[in-house]
Amino acid sequence: MPTLKLWLLCTVFLAAKMWVNALVQGYVRLRYRQFVNPEDADVVGQVIGHALPPAPQENPLVKRATRCWRNDLENIPIFLLLALGYGLLGGEAVWGAVYMGIFAIARTSHTLFYLARLQPWRFLAYLLGVGMTMALSIHSLLLALR
Q1: Nearest CA to 144 among 103, 79, 90?
Q2: Mean pLDDT over residues 33-61, rounded?
Q3: pLDDT digits (tens, 9 = 90+) for 4-34
Q4: What are the DSSP calls for 41-59, one per residue?
Q5: How far apart are CA 28 and CA 36, in angstroms?
């Protein structure tokens, strides 16, 4: 049970991290009043009191946050499914805390480095997250085969 509690905490933390990334997108769109969807431009234009034409393209930071979001969707669900399996198989909480804690730190760092355009740090954070996913996979597989 302690491992499943860790899993839930990790899941909530990573969801919040992704929501913050979404807030960055919304903030930048509002700050620069750039909306590529005509209906979004119309609604915001009505709120601010004058027509707002749709932007021809997304703000570069919105594009970057979108790519970061997509990368999260390629990595976080897989890790969380494996971590859930690890917990359901009775994996030790200490190792679960190591895998989940390092993964959460790696993914948070990846997001910050992505938005700030910091290489090679973004790549290293990505590799650390992948490493935790692989280690958790192997540990879970060994638990399942015992």
Answers
A1: 90
A2: 93
A3: 999 999 999 999 999 999 999 999 999 999 9
A4: HHHHHHHHTS--PPPSS--
A5: 13
Given the candidates 1.20.120.550, 2.40.110.20, 3.40.50.2300, 3.40.50.300, the CATH classification of the domain at 2-145 is 1.20.120.550
Distance CA 16, CA 111 (A): 12
Which uninterrupted H or E stretch holds 94?
A: helix 93-116
CA 49 to chain CA centroid, Å, is 35
Decide: pTM greater than 0.85. Answer: yes
71 has a pLDDT exceeding 90: yes
Distance of alpha carbon 57 from alpha carbon 140, whole angstroms: 44
